[in-house]
Amino acid sequence: MSTIFDSFIAPPCHDQIEILYQDAHLALINKPAGLLSLSGKNPQNLDSVHHRLVQIFPGCTLVHRLDFGTSGLMVIARNKAINAALCRQFSQRTVTKVYSALLCGHLADNEGVIDAAIAKDPALFPLMSICALRGKPARSRYRVVERFYHEPAEGRLLPLTRVRLTPETGRTHQLRIHCQQLGHPIWGCDLYGGRLPPGTERTPRLMLHASELHFVHPISEEWVKAQHASPF
């Protein structure tokens, strides 16, 4: 068994967590890009969504995570029973998650499905890989919202496609690696080719935002359909 050593040190995140809704059972937040969901083992990576929120909601736990560079909606459980109920919805795939993203280049098709198994490889950490033999099933849907050109400071026109991404499974880095597999990495993605096309090198962030989250409130049993517009 290979030992995984994580040498990543997160730069300071000065942006605040936006609390969009709260009750006695859960909270909905907008996570800023550049903030860890959970504190790392390295004491220099103490700052995180959980570290900040436990000061406000003692005993709260994360039901799911967003990558360090991803912004957007997260649901936070305020006690263990709520956490278990929400985790059950995630594991049964009854939760709908929708993301907004900017992809490098112009996609040929207006919509489609990416079906490609994803595997962990300690030798490549933190990268995941597409592997039909060792990977776990992973499926994502995409729909084009618009195709346009961005003009960076250097003056070179950068073709981009704004898409709506809906993951049907919840693998680590799923949307990032699936978009790379599509041939159009997410703009600003340092792990999966989103800083390789000319004009993308100085992108300030990963252009991926969790824009919608639909689930059933464990207590009221009513549908919660949270939305938060993309900042880019």
From TrEMBL:
The keyword Isomerase applies. Gene3D superfamilies: Pseudouridine synthase (3.30.2350.10). GO terms for biological process: enzyme-directed rRNA pseudouridine synthesis. Residues 25-181 form the Pseudouridine synthase RsuA/RluA-like domain. This is Ribosomal large subunit pseudouridine synthase A. InterPro entries: PsdUridine_synth_cat_dom_sf (IPR020103), PsdUridine_synth_RluA-like_CS (IPR006224), PsdUridine_synth_RsuA/RluA (IPR006145), RluA_PseudoU_synthase (IPR050188). It is an enzyme of class 5 (isomerase). Its EC number is 5.4.99.28. One of its GO terms (molecular function) is tRNA pseudouridine(32) synthase activity. Keywords: Isomerase. PANTHER family: MITOCHONDRIAL RNA PSEUDOURIDINE SYNTHASE, RIBOSOMAL LARGE SUBUNIT PSEUDOURIDINE SYNTHASE A.
